[in-house]
Amino acid sequence: MATMKKTYHHGDLASVLTQAVRTLIERDGAAHFSIAEACKMAGVSTAAPYKHFKEKQDILESVAKSGFQDMTEEMIEARDAAGPNEAGRAERIAAIGKAYVGFARKNPGAFRLMFGSSPNVKENDTVHETGHRCFSILIEEVAAHLGMTPDDDRTKQLSVLLWTFVHGAASLEIDNDYEAADTVIDVDGMVDLATYRLLNTVN
Questions:
Q1: φ, ψ for residue 44 (rounded to 5)?
Q2: In this structure, how many other beta carbons lie within 10 angstroms of the beta carbon of residue 132?
Q3: What are phi and psi of 186, to 5 degrees?
Q4: Which residues of the chain have pLDDT under 50?
Q5: Alpha-carbon gap, residue 158 to 146, rounded angstroms
Q6: What residues have CB less than 8 Å from 105, skipping those under 6 apart?
Q7: Long-range contacts of 50-58, Cβ-Cβ distance < 8 Å, separation of 24 or more
Q8: Cα(57)–Cα(47) distance, rounded to whole angstroms?
Q9: Using CA atoms, how far apart are residues 158 and 175, in angstroms rounded to an integer?
């Protein structure tokens, strides 16, 4: 809370409120958070949000955008930590997938919001563009793995296959659906396995 107030005094009110709402969404869900409580966390009046946001929908869109930005940063960091561009592309792609799951694991409320718990949010142009930039990290790495361009249909199809598996795994984990298997599930291990198998299938 103190950090939020300090940031606010530096003039970054929209960012501070976005972070406060994001914190509450993780606790209460996107449908149930209180703007008044977010204002209290940020140390501002209940009228303050409307200097930057017309309505609650705008705040949710800001949260989704910030989520995609954070996910993108985490994917890039994981990719780069996995090895240089000229080698180990499979490891880099797997690292992107594990970072994706890791983000969902840490931020289930934001993750659900980003991908449709409030349908109008993901239809916002800014949210859509930020999400596309996030997905482009995977597309670019797959293109490099295949020796093709990001616009090539084969690149896009393989990227969608990888994303489909990773997104499904992330959703199943944060909704505790793996409990139905009644066994220990190593989701990161599954991402590694699926990545290598899918990449080998197209080589």
A1: -130, 170
A2: 11
A3: -95, 90
A4: 1-10
A5: 10
A6: 170, 173, 174
A7: 51/13, 52/13, 52/14, 52/17, 53/14, 53/17, 57/118, 57/120, 57/121
A8: 16
A9: 26
Token reading at 17: 């409120």
Provide the sign of the torsion angle of the four alpha carbons 12, 17, 20, 22, taken in this order. negative
The secondary structure of 78-145, three-state, reads HHHHCCCCCCCHHHHHHHHHHHHHHHHHHCHHHHHHHCCCCHHHHCCHHHHHHHHHHHHHHHHHHHHH
pLDDT digits (tens, 9 = 90+) for 91-122: 999 999 999 999 999 999 999 999 987 778 88
* Residue in this structure with the two tokens 């490891």, named with its chain if needed: 91
Residue written as tokens 């992330």? 170
Instruction: Give this prediction's pTM.
Output: 0.89
Extract the tokens encoding 98.
Answer: 């594990």
Task: Indicate left, alpha or beta for 118 from its phi (over 0: left) and psi (-120 to 50: alpha).
Answer: beta
Write down the mean pLDDT value for the chain.
89
DSSP code of 32?
T
Q: Are 43 and 65 in contact (CB under 8 A)?
A: no
What are the structure tokens assigned to 135, written together?
A: 């997905």
Contact criterion met (CB below 8 Å) for 139 and 153: no
